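pasting for ref
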Amino acid sequence: MSHTLDRIDRHILEILQQDARISINELADKVGLSPTPCGRRIKQLEQSGLIDKQVILLDQRQAGLPMTVLVQVSLEAQTKDKLEAFEEEVSKLPEIMECFLITGSAADYILKIVVPSLDHYQQLLLDRLTAMPGISSIISNFVLRQPVKKTALPLSQLGNK
């Protein structure tokens, strides 16, 4: 669903995407409102579903998970039941941070996996991933460096009222 926001709503969202822990008073000051109307706008953005949730982002290395693996998974069949079964299984694994159903490749899915070590990934691969029914191939890509990492979405497409 696309939303049209005014300049103040967009500014609120841009600030919150950078620091969701900012006080309502500081946020209101930055966007030129008093705290009550600023809080009301945030509540409306939450109720509209545009604000999904607020989280704390941890440093992956500091959390003891220095290794990221992007895994391409191909299924034997791409029926709705097989896709749903695979998605349900991978959602149970805490190491899998993201799962993308893709097109334009031989793979059906790309998984973003974080692990503490190569040994841990090997165990995950052998004990859990390859044990899943319906998988025809798995290709592991080890991330060497992440030159771009963003969590804030660009908001220019939301327009101005």
